[in-house]
């Protein structure tokens, strides 16, 4: 296997991330009627770039090495783990941030001294966002497969 062979896997996986993040910018434009380029670098939202990139890489490895290869088994394990974490732990952290932000807002409203710095709430994904990211990643891998 040549360096270019692996290099291409990395490039296509990065393209997957870029496409997914661009879709988030477009989704924000459609929903809120204004462009927010920060969505290109922010986590969370539809579709999951974690799922997209990990499923792109897993699909490319499967197509190149076969589904019975050790390489595919390793990447599949990590891809599924990444997707589980995106919809599990990271989503729970976002839910907790929302609750803490509500508490801070309530304390500010009652004029009690409090640090009013907002926590980032959109850090995880819903199961739908993860599944859509996974599907998008497989489509991108198939589109760029050489």
The sequence of SSEs as H and E is: HHHHH
Determine the N-to-C terminus distance: 14 Å
Overall pLDDT metric: 83
Oligomer: single chain
Q: Based on helices, strands and strand pairing, what is the structural class? A: mainly alpha
Provide the low-confidence segments as ranges: none
Output the radius of gyration.
19 Å
Number of helices: 5
Description:
- With 146 residues, the chain is mainly alpha-helical.
- The protein contains five helices and no strands.
- Helix 1 packs antiparallel against helix 2 (49-65) and helix 1 crosses helix 5.
- The chain is elongated.
- The mean pLDDT is 83.
List keywords for this structure.
single chain; 146 residues; mainly alpha; 71% helix; elongated
What are the SSEs and their pairings?
Layout lengths: L2 H30 L16 H17 L4 H18 L1 H21 L17 H18 L2
Helix pairs in contact: 1-2, 1-5, 2-3, 2-5, 3-4
Quick gist of this model?
The chain is mainly α and 146 residues long. Helix content is 71%, strand content 0%.
């Amino acid at each position: 296997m040549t360096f270019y062979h692996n290099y291409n896997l990395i490039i296509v996986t990065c393209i997957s991330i870029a496409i997914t993040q661009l879709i988030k910018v477009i989704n924000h434009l459609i929903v809120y009627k204004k462009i927010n380029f920060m969505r290109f670098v922010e986590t969370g939202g539809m579709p999951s770039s974690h799922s997209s990139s990990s499923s792109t890489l897993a699909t490319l490895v499967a197509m190149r090495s076969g589904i019975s290869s050790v390489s595919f088994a390793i990447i599949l394990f990590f891809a599924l783990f990444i997707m589980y974490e995106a919809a599990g732990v990271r989503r729970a952290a976002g839910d907790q941030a929302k609750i803490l932000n509500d508490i801070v807002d309530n304390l500010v409203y009652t004029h009690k001294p409090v640090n009013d710095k907002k926590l980032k709430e959109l850090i995880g994904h819903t199961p739908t966002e993860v599944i859509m990211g996974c599907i998008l990643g497989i489509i991108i891998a198939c589109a760029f497969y050489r």
